[in-house]
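ligand=PRP
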Amino acid sequence: MSTITIALPSKGRMKDDASAIFERAGLPIVAVGNERSYRGRVEGHGDIEIAFLSASEIARELGAGTVDFGVTGEDLIREGLADADRKVEIAARLGFGHADVVVAVPEIWLDVDTMADLGDVAADFRSRHGRRLQIATKYWRLTQQHFSGSHGIQLYRIVESLGATEGAPAAGQADIIVDITSTGSTLKANHLKILSDGVILKSEACLVRARKAEHDGDVRITEIVEAVRKVL
Ligand SMILES: Nc1ncnc2c1ncn2[C@@H]1O[C@H](COP(=O)(O)OP(=O)(O)OP(=O)(O)O)[C@@H](O)[C@H]1O
Ligand SMILES: O=P(O)(O)OC[C@H]1O[C@H](OP(=O)(O)OP(=O)(O)O)[C@H](O)[C@@H]1O
């Protein structure tokens, strides 16, 4: 019988909760070799292999079909994969790792409260400031989908930001941001406000399955999903 590979976070904020869920589901994970090993197995299930990867790598491997299941954030799935719903299935939402991907603008933009207001700002930006509205983010795909796709806003430029994105407007690197927030305190500290229709995605950690033909009729696939769902 073929081996089923489950990718779990090797570090970061989702690591412990992800392992705990499998433990509760009766699939206790043990590291192979020493503590720092990136391979694991499931006690009593010789046909399941665990790959410990970073959260964004898990999204990529699921998209490529090199793992069967993975635990990662929905934001990383939707940002990392074009056509995510065709490549993967969200088998369960796990109830931790909650974060919203949001559009936030400086609090002092008093008359900008909605995406429509922001569209007006974007349309006037070049004539007022001699350049396009700049958006700092690491979420390129989600930003383009929300601005161009859902709101018909085309006049903007994305400025790649890999860290401290909330600081970009004050630093003069961008005008607004798209980033994740959980408590909201980082946005507040940087005098940014979320637009009323600026929540692009409500993300949380998910059990995600790669859509593979070989899964059809494999009862082990259904058993893993059911075992996890039962303990949520
Ligand atoms: N306050 C938060 N800040 C950042 N990410 C959060 C927060 N709350 C939940 N998350 C979620 O955690 C996931 C990212 O986890 P983490 O930052 O631990 O990954 P990582 O180990 O840094 O991964 P990578 O190195 O692949 O980026 C995302 O899905 C994100 O939505
Ligand atoms: O709404 P809040 O509760 O303030 O959380 C949001 C912040 O937390 C994360 O950064 P973090 O400092 O965790 O660093 P990371 O992105 O490198 O993990 C994220 O990038 C935001 O900046």
